[in-house]
Amino acid sequence: QVQLLESGGGLVQAGGSLRLSCATSGRRFSNYAMGWFRQSPGKEREFVSGIDYRGISTYYTDSVKGRFTISRDNAKSTVYLQMTSLEPEDTAIYYCATQGIRFGVAWRRNDYTYWGQGTQVTVSS
Predict the structure, then answer these.
(1) pLDDT tens, N- to C-terminus, the chain (125 residues)
(2) Contact by Cβ (8 Å): 33, 98
(3) Distance between CA atoms of 23 and 78, rounded to whole angstroms?
(4) In degrees, to the nearest 5, what angle opens at C-alpha 76 toward C-alphas 93 and 32?
(5) What does the H/E/C string look like for the chain?
(6) Beta 10-13 vs 119-124: how paired, if at all?
(7) Phi and psi for 108 in degrees, rounded to 5?
(8) Is there a contact between 78 and 23 (Cβ–Cβ < 8 Å)?
(9) How many Å is the maximal CA-CA distance in the chain?
(10) CB 33 within 8 A of CB 19
(11) Rg of the chain taking only CA atoms, in angstroms
């Protein structure tokens, strides 16, 4: 059974930084792409960032390019999202996700089929 557990959310002022972590278990972490999604009230879930199983290829949605960095530590079965220069528009619940197929590409959002419970990020102005 695949399990994903996010941590690191919280309240931060605009311009601040947070690092989200997602620890996974239940299968060989290093075989699967990982991603971060977010959802704000009244909005659809948005694909924020993804990283391939090797940690080489990454994807970012335009609104976070240059501010967010995704990374992974295969030895710890953990994926991270470093968020800097945070804006009130970044306020959302952030979800960690992983794909259902091995060796997938980071940008294929529809291949992400396992989800964590989410962690709240609130950016005050």
Answers:
(1) 999 999 999 999 999 999 999 999 999 999 999 999 999 989 999 999 999 999 999 999 999 999 999 999 999 999 999 999 999 999 999 999 999 999 999 999 999 999 999 999 999 99
(2) yes
(3) 4
(4) 70
(5) CCEEEEECCEEEECCCCEEEEEEEECCCHHHCCEEEEEECCCCCCEEEEEECCCCCCEEECHHHCCCEEEEEECCCCEEEEEECCCCHHHCEEEEEEEECCCCCCCCCHHHEEEECCCEEEEEEC
(6) parallel
(7) -80, 90
(8) yes
(9) 41
(10) no
(11) 13
Q: Which pLDDT does position 54 carry in this prediction?
A: 94
Burial bucket for residue 108 (CB in 10 Å: 0-12, 13-18, 19+)? middle
β-partners of residue 58 are: 51
CA distance 47 to 95: 9
